[in-house]
Specification:
Order of helices and strands: EHEHEEEEHEHEEEEHEHHHHHHHHH
Mean pLDDT: 97
Largest sheet: 8 strands, mixed
Distance between the termini: 51 Å
Structural class: alpha/beta
CATH architecture of the largest domain: 3-Layer(aba) Sandwich
CATH class of the largest domain: Alpha Beta
Low-confidence stretches: none
Number of domains: 2
CATH superfamily of the largest domain: NAD(P)-binding Rossmann-like Domain
CATH topology of the largest domain: Rossmann fold
Radius of gyration: 19 Å
Oligomer: single chain
Helix content: 40-55%
């Protein structure tokens, strides 16, 4: 096994993803510095500490935390864990703190590696796929609701020493984390599943109960099929994880295959303490814009370049915008409307 990272680690974005990963790394003895725009959260980390709560483990760590404008110094290992629509701004803000021989790991949802590499360079960008469940509850407190797939990969598919060291380090957080030579396959696979989570956020039911609605199977098939078809047009073989099987949503796949995959996703999500998606919390708990324009809309945008229409994805994006602006209320009937859109 490769050696673990011995140098300091910078985590930019100390919310659900970054805060959870960072807390485990601190507990494992790594020198971790957090950056976050939420002043109260920064103060809590510097003061009482950062607490991880929930069914997995309960513990507290102490670490340094800064607001972006107060940070000084440079780091070789940077984990970016902000919302997708903040990727460009955060990457530009962290660039002065990135060592010339360093890299940025995108621990996010979406194709944010494309944005990061444009700013810091492809050779200073590493991709990651994460599907564990966590919620930022309040300053200094994150609920770790359930384990899920964690996959790391170089954008060019090479298996490098730095990737091996990063993987060895992140095993302190997720013992089942893996390295891959096909990170884009996992990222596109997550877009298919992610589209379904955005649809779940339109109503009140949690992830498992929403996916289990039998009348919505045609909706899940359509959303998954659009994402998979666009991925294939891009020359990407989408990968499966935690019940989501891209092959079940191929253009020629039958209903039984999709139903089996959806049932597997329901089974994976049913015992999870995180009952609702982060999108749902953004809309109805934190009342802030979602990642839809950077995470889900690109499916249709890329599809258009290949002559592939994505009507369900486009309708979903429009409904999420309606929810963000208050024109549409949380209602499980929204998904029935999306079904026939």
């Amino acid at each position: 096994m490769a050696e673990k990272i011995s140098e300091p680690i910078l985590i930019w974005g100390a919310g659900a993803i970054g805060g959870t990963i960072g807390a485990y790394l601190v507990r494992a003895g790594h020198d971790v510095t957090f950056v976050d725009i939420e002043g109260a959260h920064v103060d809590a980390i510097n003061g009482p500490g950062l607490s991880i709560i929930g069914p997995i483990e309960n513990f507290k760590v102490h670490a340094r935390a800064f607001r972006p404008g107060d940070l000084r110094g440079s780091w070789k290992h940077v984990i970016l864990a902000v919302k997708a629509h903040h990727t460009e701004g955060a990457t530009r803000a962290l660039t002065p703190h990135l060592a010339q021989d360093g890299y940025v790991l995108s621990a996010q949802n979406g194709l944010n590696e494309l944005i990061i590499q444009r700013i810091v360079g492809r050779d200073r960008t590493i991709g990651a796929f994460v599907n564990f469940s966590a919620d930022w509850m309040r300053p200094g407190e994150i609920m770790f609701g359930g384990r899920g797939a964690v996959v790391l990969g170089e954008l060019n598919g090479r298996m490098t020493e730095r990737l091996a060291r990063l993987h060895a380090t992140l095993l302190a957080f997720e013992p089942e984390a893996v390295m891959t030579d096909a990170i884009w396959g996992y990222l596109w696979g997550k877009l298919g599943y992610g589209a379904m989570l955005f649809a779940q956020a339109l109503g009140g039911l949690g992830i498992a109960d929403c996916l289990a609605r039998p009348e919505l199977l045609p909706l899940w098939r359509a959303l998954g099929r659009e994402a998979v078809e666009v991925a294939l047009a891009e020359g990407v073989d989408p990968k499966g994880f935690n019940g989501f099987d891209p092959k079940a949503f191929m253009p020629n796949a039958g209903e039984a295959a999709a139903a089996a995959s959806v049932a597997a996703m329901v089974a994976f999500n049913r015992p999870n303490a995180k009952t609702h998606s982060g999108v749902w919390r953004d809309l109805w708990v934190r009342h802030r814009p979602t990642e839809v324009d950077v995470q889900i809309a690109p499916i249709a945008e890329v599809g258009a370049r290949h002559g592939i229409d994505c009507p369900k994805v486009r309708a979903l994006v429009a409904q999420i915008h309606d929810c963000e602006t208050g024109r549409r209320k949380m209602d499980d009937a929204n998904l029935l409307e999306l079904l026939v859109a």
